[in-house]
Write a structure and sequence with these properties.
Layout: H1 3-6, H2 10-16, H3 38-41, H4 47-61, H5 67-77, H6 82-91, H7 95-104, E1 115-119, H8 120-131, E2 136-138, E3 144-146, H9 160-173, E4 178-184, H10 190-201, E5 207-213, H11 216-221, E6 227-228, H12 232-235, E7 241-242, H13 244-252, E8 258-260
Parallel strand pairs: 1-4, 1-6, 2-8, 4-5, 6-7
Antiparallel strand pairs: 2-3
Helix pairs in contact: 4-5, 5-6, 8-9, 8-13, 9-10
Length: 266
């Protein structure tokens, strides 16, 4: 990877991959960017409270308390909004889960036979969010996660093609030869996104197998090889995984808006 690429700003990266309107996914939104309240909710003045809340959630999760009850108790104690509670849910995990995830995480370059299974929307939307300066949470397990949601329908935005190409570039630099990319069949526009990806990635030297699955999470937990996901349910059940979104963001989009809630962060 060249220093020239690494030193590019987010606007420069987006300018390299201009929006192409020939794929019809109508929507008023043109970016995956931050929620209007995020600037206030995740301002630096709130980081200490959020990190303390994560520690308290982890303590209770590690002792078998139900997640819903934990979020209510901890959220009420710290007067957190629903969006901040969502951040706790996506960023926290028990001590047992943390230990297992650390043991089963491998570098992308160590994927056997250069093959990997990808949680499609999970990865793509996180990279789109990072490119559009949406808030990116660094969880207790070191995973980068976004606060976006597809709500049953995926909408292509200005960052979609740049994100796909950036992911492909990262795979190529790591020597990946085959990518099995799984999209949720029940999510509207999955078929259109599959066509967009096939068209966009047709000239790469990587073998792309893009599939629509009724439940990609279950497919990935049975995948014969490492998977790329930040979904907690998947990470607690798969054999091996790669912290891919975090690697891509730290290497290619280091100036994005990150809120670090991992242990020891300040």
């Amino acid at each position: 990877m060249s220093l020239e690429w690494r030193n590019r700003s987010i606007p420069a990266i987006l300018a390299m991959f201009p929006y192409e309107g020939r794929y019809s996914m109508p929507d008023r939104r043109s970016h995956r960017g931050p929620h209007p309240e995020d600037t206030k909710l995740f301002d630096a003045s709130n980081h200490t409270t959020l990190r303390l809340a994560i520690e308290e959630c982890a303590y209770l999760l590690s002792r078998g308390y139900a997640e819903a009850s934990i979020l209510q108790i901890v959220g009420n104690h710290h007067h957190l909004t629903q969006r901040q509670r969502m951040a706790l849910r996506r960023s926290g995990c028990s001590d047992r889960s943390l230990e297992r995830r650390r043991e089963t995480c491998i570098p992308l370059t160590q994927c056997p036979n250069g093959q990997i299974g990808v949680d499609g929307y999970n990865l793509l939307i996180t990279i789109e969010s990072a490119l559009s300066n949406g808030v990116i949470l660094v969880g207790r397990d070191g995973c980068c996660r976004d606060l976006a949601s597809v709500h049953g329908t995926y909408r292509k935005v200005s960052e979609t093609l740049p994100a796909i190409r950036l992911i492909a570039k990262h795979f190529a630099e790591a020597g990946i030869r085959q990518v099995d990319w799984y999209l949720d069949r029940p999510v509207s526009n999955s078929g259109r996104l599959k066509a967009v990806m096939h068209d966009t990635l047709s000239e790469t030297n990587i073998a792309w197998n893009i599939e629509l699955a009724d439940n990609p999470d279950h497919v990935l937990t049975k995948y014969e090889g490492p998977v790329a996901s930040s979904d907690s349910w998947v990470l607690d059940r798969c054999d091996l995984w790669v912290n891919l979104a975090t690697d891509i963001i730290k290497m290619h989009i280091p100036e994005c808006w990150m809120v670090d809630m991992s242990p020891g962060s300040r």
